[in-house]
Amino acid sequence: MQYRSRSNNSSAAIMSTTDMNMRGKIIFYEDRNFQGRHYECMSECADMSSYMSRCHSCRVESGCFMVYDRPNYMGNQYFFRKGEYADYMSMMGWRDYIRSCCMIPMYRGSYRMRIYERENFGGMMHECMDDCDNFMDHYRMSNCMSCHVMDGHWLMYEQTHYRGRMMYLRPGEYRSFRDMGYGGMRIMSMRRIMDSWY
């Protein structure tokens, strides 16, 4: 994954607009409907296999989380906000269990991202500060292969109207979605992760 953090000054600006007192909590259960052994996570977990051999349901008590079907925040990912997910595998169409997760920090600042038609910030470019449900309709872009997130936390989707597989992006430079493991995924819509979701 080609990701580069912004300068310390920019990072400080993010921290000043982030609620540092916000704590997340997600509880994973071995079986559907919150049955069986459980594991509580307050921030992130790179490999859940050391705590549970399987996971069929979960409950988000506070905060927002990204969950992944592979260790180390790889593979398919899904966004969970506060709520109960009694049988998430059927809901998401996954064939595998959640293997890792990370909490998304609450953010209350501005949102800004530059999206590019080609890798390494090539081709057509658009600067975005709002949600977009269809890249083709709004920007005349048939694909997005790299981006630079200046402010905020975002979700990008492989289908229009925020459907299909998704990808979580925090501030930084993403020179190639293909090198990140999303070569077969066309990005067609995106939206901001807003503080009202928490």
TrEMBL record:
PROSITE patterns: CRYSTALLIN_BETA_GAMMA (PS50915). Residues 24-62, 63-105, 152-194 form the Beta/gamma crystallin 'Greek key' domain. Keywords: Repeat. InterPro entries: Beta/Gamma-Crystallin (IPR050252), Beta/gamma_crystallin (IPR001064), G_crystallin-like (IPR011024). It comes from the Eukaryota. Transmembrane segments: none annotated. Belongs to the beta/gamma-crystallin family. This is Beta/gamma crystallin 'Greek key' domain-containing protein. It comes from Characodon lateralis.
